## 1
Amino acid sequence: MYIYTQKRPVMAYISLREVCKVYPNGYCALKNINLDIEAGQFIAVLGPSGAGKSTLLRAMNALDPATQGEITIDGVTLNKKNYRKIRAHIGMVFQQFNLVDRLNVMTNVLVGRLAEHSWLSSLFYLFPKTDYQIAEAALREVDLLDKAWSRADKLSGGQQQRVGIARALAQQPKLILADEPIASLDPKASEEVLKLLRKICSEKGITIIINLHQVEYAKQYADRIIALNAGDLVFDGSPEQLTAAKQAEIYGTTAEEIYYEPELVLANA
Amino acid sequence: MNPSWYWPTPSGKPPLTAVLSIVLPIAVLILTASTVDMSYNKIFYALPRMLDFAKNLWVIPDWQYLPQLGTKMLETVEMTLLATMLAVIISMPLGILAAKNASPHPWIFRMTRDLLSFIRALPELVWALVFVSALGLGPLPGIMALALVTVGFMGKFIAESIEVVSAKAIEGLESTGCNKLQSILYAMLPQAVPDFIGSLLYILDHNLRAASILGLVGAGGIGYDMVMSMRLFNYERIGMIALSIYALVTLLDRLSDVFRQKAIGGILNVH
C-alpha cells in the first residue's frame, strides 16, 4: 500500500475516520478509509471498476450509509437522523443523470429546492418566485436556459447531464459529488461537463469530488487525486505525483482477463 | 426438418422446463375437462338451437323502444363514468400505500394490498346485490358496486405501475434531501403516468361492460331491459340492445387508442 501522507489541516471540510462499508452480502467495499478534504478543492477519485469509488461518494451523502466509522461534513457528523438535512446542501451528479424524464427541465432543476419546502406546497407542485430565480440562475450557469420548458428526456446526454448539474446548483450546495458523470457521454460532451464542473469549483468555491475512469482527465482538471483499489486507499496526492508506475499499481495488470476468450459452445453442436 | 437446425441452448435441444410448462398443463386440462361437463356431443347437438336463436334475431327492430334505449344507454354511460371517477379519486392514495417502494411502512403496504384484494374478491354483481338490498333498486347501488370493485383493481394497477418506475429518478430526488412524499410526487407519479392512463382506459372499457349487466340485479343501466327482453323472447329489442352496447364499446375503444397514443408519445405533457 502506498498511502501518500500529507499534513492534515486543522479543520478539514470533510473528514472520514476509519470508514468501512460492508454490503449485506458480505462484500467489503471500503476498508478503513481515512481522508481529509479541504473546502473548495476539485478532487478526482480513480480506481478500477468495483474499487469502491461510488461507494465512497454514496457514503458521504448517506445514499449508501457507511457501516462503520465517522463521516463529518462541514462540522456535522452523519447519523441516521440528519441524512436528509445533510443531503439538502450536497449536490449529486449521476452517471445516468437520474432526472425525471417526463418532467420538464425547469421542474427537474426546481427539485433541488424541494428539501426547503413543506409537504403541503409540494403537494400542489407550487414553488415560490425566489426558487424560480435560483433555478434560472442555475440553468444560465449550465447554459440551458433556452431548454427550460422542454421535457428532460428530449435532451441529448450532455444536456441532460448539465440539467443534473443545474439541479445540484439549485440546492446552493457547498459540495457536489459527481459519480462518474461523464461515463455515459461522448468525448465532446465529457469535456464540456468537466470544464463546467471545474468552473463551478473555481468560481463559486464549491468543493467537487468526482469519480473518473480517465486518468488523463483527472490529471488535467483535478487539484488532488485519490485512488482506490479493492476498498483500500492506494494513492492520495497531486496530479504531478501520479506517475505512470503509480498508475500501473492502481489499476493492476488485467491483461489475462481481457484476452481470455470463452470456448465456442455451438462449434461442436 | 433440416438436421443442422438447433435450439439456442448448450445441447441444441429445447429446454426441458419450457417443454414441460407447455405439455403438462395441456395434458392435465384435457384429462380434467369432463369434470366441468365439457362434452363435444352436447355442443354439437346444441348448434341447431343456437342457430334458431340467431335466426330469431332477424326481425324488424322495435322502433318504439328507441327513446327508452337511448335513456338507458345514457344512464349506463353515466354510471360508468361516475363510478370510475369516484374510484380513481379513492384508489390514488390507496395505490400509493399499496406500492412497495412508496408505502410508508411494510405493514401498511401489506394491509392495503390485502384490503384491495378483499374488495376484488367478489365481482360487481355480488356487490351490487349487497347494495341493492341496502339502498333499494336503481342506478345508485350500481354505481357504488362498480366504484368499489374498481377501487380494488385500480388501486392494484396504480401500485404496480408505481413499483416498476425507474429507481434512478427516485435516487436523484433523494440525493437532494427530499422527503418520501416529495419523491412520490415528483419522481414516482410523473413516471407512472403512461401506465395510469393505460389502466384507466382499460378500466373504463371494463366498467362500461360491467355497467351494462348490473341491471340484472336491479342496479340500473341497460342490463335490466336486456334481461327482461331475453326472458320475454322479445327479439325485437335484444338485437337493438346488443348492437348499441357493441357500438358504444367500440367507440370507446377507438377513442382510448387515440388518447393512449398521445399520452404515451408525450404530446400530453404532465407539467
## 2
Amino acid sequence: MARHVIAPVSEMPPGTRKFLTVDERPIAVFNVNGEFFGLLNRCPHMGAALCEGPLIGLAQSTTPGEIEYTKLGEIVRCPWHGWEFDIRTGQSYCDPRRFRVKAYAAHVEPGASVVKGPYVAETLSVSVEDDYVVVEM
Amino acid sequence: MNMQFRSGAQQDNATAIKTAIADCDIHPARATASELHPFLAKRWHEHLATYGKHAYQGMMEGPPYPKAQPNASRRDAYPPEGGPQGSSLSFMQKQLLDPHNVALGVLNPLGTGQGIRNHDLSAALATAINDWQIEKWTSKDSRLKGSIVVENEDGPTAAAEIRKRAGDPNFVQVLLLSRNVEPLGQRRYWPIYEAAQEAGLPVGVHAFGFGGNPITASGWPSYYIEEMVGHSQCQQTALASIVLEGVFERFPKLKMVMIEAGFGWAPSLAWRLDKVWQKLRSEVPHVKRPPSEYIKDHIWWTTQPMEDPERREHLFQTIEWIGWDKLLFATDYPHWDFDEPSRVLPVGVSDANREAFYLGNAKKLYGIA
C-alpha cells in the first residue's frame, strides 16, 4: 500500500473536498470538521461520481414517529440516485448487504516524512515545513 | 460545507458499453425562461408574464411533489456554461451521446404546456416547443429525434399539430403524459390517435402530467416516493382505458409506448383484464379479443427505471411475456434516476435479444435506418 500526497493541509480547510486520480482510480478526499476522509469516487450502484454529491446527515427511525438525525455532514449522497454512504466506513445506508463503497484511509502527516505520489505531488508548491494531506491506497 | 475543487476528469467512461444504443427517453431543457419566446407570439410573452400558466392542479405552478435532486436531475449534469441540467446540446453530447455511443436519442420535453387550463396557451406552447426541438436539438445533431408535443385536452387542435408535423423527419412520435383530465382511452383523445395512426407515428405516454385528479387512485399520498411508485398505477389506468374503450379496434395500426412507468406490472394487468373480460365481455362488445392480445400487439415499453428483482430469472420471465422485441432502452437523462446503459441488463441475455433491447427495437419502431 503506497502513500500519496494529496495536498497541503492549508489548501483543504474544513468543508472542502478534492477530486483526483491515483493509480488510474478516481478518488475524492474530504475535510469534514478537521477530519480527513477518502473515498473511491465511483458509486457501486451504477458508477456515478459519488463524491460530487452533497454531504448530509443520517435520518433514522427506531420507532415510527421518532426520527434521529445523526452523523451530520458525514453521509455522502450520490448525485444520481441518492444512495447514502457513510464517509467514515464506505457503508451504504440503504442496502448494506449489497453495496459498500471502497474507503481509503486519509490522515495528516508531517511534510518531510512522506513519499510523494507521481500524480499529485508535482502540483504541490508548498514548502516541506507545511503538513500535507496523504492518502494510502 | 459542500465547496468543491477538483483536478482531472471524474467520469469514468471505460465501463460504458461501446456498441451503439438507442436512448428512448431524453429530456431536453430550456436554458432560460425566455428561450421559447422566439417561437411564441408576443401576445403569449405578456400573458405568461402577467398570468403565468396554471395547470390542472389547484392554483399553483410547479410539480405536485418535491423532487429528490435539483430539477429532478443528476447533480453532475449542470452544463459548464450555466443553465439547468439538460439545457446544453454540447454538454449532452459530451456526457451522454458520445461516451455511450447513442445512435438514436428520442427527446421527450417536459414542463411544456401540456395540462395547462388555458387551451390557447397550451396549444401555442406545444407548437413553440416543437419548433424549439428542431431549432435547438434535432437540426444540430442528427442522432436526436423529437416528439410532437400536443395540446392534450383538445383533440382537434392536437390532431392539427400532428398533421402539420407528419412526414417531418425531425419527429418520431407523438408525446402524451399519463395524467390527463380523463383516462386516455376516452373519446376526447381519439383525434390524437387518429392523426398519429395516419402519420404512422407511435404515441408515447410518459409518466407525470396534470389532470386535476389525485396522483393515485385513492387520494393524495404523503411522499415523493409514493408519487414515483404511483406512476405504474396511473399508467395502468391509462392502458386499461385505451384497451377497453376499443382504441385499438378503431385505430388498428396505432402503436403506443409506455414511457418511464415500469413494465413489470404488464403481465399481471393483462391477466386480470383477460380474466374479467371473459365474464364481462358483453359490456364491451367492441373489445373483440382478449385484452392481453391488444397489449402484446400494440404496446412498447421503455426500460428506465428498469425493474431489478432479487432473482434475475423473474426479470427474464416478465420480459418473455412482454416480448424481447417490445422493450426500448432509455436512460431518462438528465434526470436523477438515470439508468447507466452498461448496468441495467443482467448477464444471460442472448446477443440477438441484447441488440434488440439496446437498439434494434427502437430503430424499427421509430423508422430509423
